[in-house]
Amino acid sequence: MQRDVTAHLTLDVTTPATLALAVAVSDGYGVGPGPGRATGVAGSSYENLTVTRDGEPVTVEEVQDENGTLLHVVRAQPGRLVVDYAAHLDGRHPDPVTPAPTTGQRLRFLRPSRYCESDSLAPTAAAEFAGLSGVDLLAGVSSWVGTRLSYVPGSSLPTDGAVRTLLARQGVCRDFAHLVVALLRALDVPARLVSVYAPGLDPMDFHAVAEAYVDGGWHVVDATTLAPRSSLIRIATGADASDTAFLSVYGGRATLAELEVTAVVDDLPSDDVRELVRLG
């Protein structure tokens, strides 16, 4: 499997700000860790990241958060900031984020979180999915959410959580994922949110899916069914969207003027919600 992804962001920085970008593919895809990720080549997979302000190169600091997400931090002065990222992935690789959660991670991904109010949805989950487990549970939750929500761009607010999404019966990918995560946690299944590059997605953008820990591994649940799960590429991982934003601005002001994302694969695979699929 050959996959190519790009992200282009243009931002107008009006006051000095610290920007945290989550656009790079997760460590473990064979592009090489550390500072060399920005320009290096590891095997036949590679990536490149450039950041400029008014046409001049800007220093970028690479850090890894507690969930394994690679963040690129920019301390930006006022001006027009342009971010360009590209990566080529040759083949599928082992799950780039530790497949077996520690006890602390398991507990974290079982608790309610800001956008995944699993405690409020516990009665609904118990009533709808009684007796299901493993792959049958994941398929059941995916189909249930997918048939009860309509995918409507612009229909939700960035502050909407799973409960409001269920009441509204519509949303975008992150809303679908939040509801899936909340229902699974309510059934004592560790679940988390993942932002991904998604070959086959239309319209193309960053995409959000859920991951659930069943049968000894983290498996993808995407109730939107908008892109085949085996082609997805992990970017950021967390309890919910508060951990996985592609751009966060601190201590100043920056406005997103342009965003363009591409993700292609040499042969788009088929998908079946009744099968367990891992990112790789």
Automatic annotation (TrEMBL):
InterPro entries: Papain-like_cys_pep_sf, Transglutaminase-like. Residues 165-225 form the Transglutaminase-like domain. Pfam families: Transglut_core (PF01841). SMART domains: TGc. This is Transglutaminase superfamily protein. It comes from Luteimicrobium subarcticum.
